[in-house]
# Entry
Amino acid sequence: GFLFLGVSVSSIGILRLNRNIQKAHEKLQAEVEVRKKTEKRLRESKDKFELLVKSLPSPVYKGQVDWTVDFLDEKVEKLTGYPLLDFITRRRRWCDVVHPEDIELVKKNFIQALKTNKSYFRTYRIKTSEGEIRWVEDRGQIICDNNDEVIHIIGVFNDITEQKLADEEKRAMEAQLYQSEKLASVGQLSAGIAHEINTPTQFVGDNVLFLRESFEDIARVIDTYTKLLEVNKEKETNTEITKKLDEIIEEVDLEYLMEEIPKAIEQSLEGVERIATIVRSMKKFAHPGTEEMVPSDINEAIKNTIIVCRNEWKYVSEVITDLDESLPPVPCKIAEINQVILNMVVNAAHAIEEVLGENPQKKGTITIKTRKNDKYAEIIISDTGKGIPEDLRSKIFDPFFTTKDVGKGTGMGLNLAHNIISEHGGTINVESEVGAGTTFTIRLPLDNVQGSKESKEEMFY
# Structure
């Protein structure tokens, strides 16, 4: 052995020390290699992330509850018109670009997400640096710690302005289509309505002519009675006048006139009332209504529509109604619901007509019921027509689909009805049996009191 720093070290000890140093060196090198590989993977992961973010069509963000952002990719400049640096340096917060009218709704949406599954999906408007209004679809997730405190928020903005404009254009086209269909319905019904009004008008006119002629005859009787009264006042007997009076009474058939004139007057009044009812129903049916959903009497709408389209069904069917008088007012656009009921009743009449032929010996039946079913009002329209084959039932609500002869229908009636009921938040279902008939069940929600205002708020939830 020998002394090393005052310590006796054997050659075996030196070898052991060398081995330990070598192992420590190798371990250190291995750790360095692991660190290098980890750093390389992190760089690769970061590069992949940045590449992924750049490849996405929409801006990705990571932010805080105070509307500031920790990360936001450069595509936000194209969306908002503001420099990315404004957001990264927090000189500008996201709430600065959200449309002022939509901020409260976005906040409410965030609070609701916190209370539920921490994810959100909202649609709202932003104002660009040029003052342009754009629509964004904001999808994200709230990340919280174990104490349910918010750490950060991650999400993506999708620019849906073009989609919104397309949707608005589609709604405008649907509105025009609805109006065209309504005008087509009115045109189709006009001949029948003219006939319905013409019939009572004709017998009112006939009765008025009868009353005019009858009045002339009665005037002759009264004139003769007046002369007889004057003679009696003079206390003289004038058999010639009395004889003349008997002849006139017999000639004009006074007894018949006294019996028929009240009937003619009553019939005329009934005819005038029928005309007034048709006109009132037509006015209510054709009224444009409002753009807002307002509580409306569905039963009255059904009664008016049945009167308006009476000429379409009266030759082929009877209409039976079973309307729930306790049904509460239904929030709806009543003019659109009138159109739906009209389409259904006319379709039912045509279905029955195809079974019975042009000269039916026995009429079919159209049954219309209303009832309250939980939170919905139901309108059930059944007919005893030919029924719908099973392979066609899935197509009946398609636009321009029809099994009617050319000129008999546009193929838009049921499609329009389906769209209207869907926009009301309701449903329309069909049950049919070939050879027995068809039943349509329309369900409209009773709790949509806020109408379009509520629908607008629902976009943000």
Remarks:
- The first helix runs from residue 11 to 55.
- The chain has twelve helices and 14 strands.
- The CA atoms of residues 361 and 393 lie 29 Å apart.
- The two ends are 85 Å apart (CA to CA).
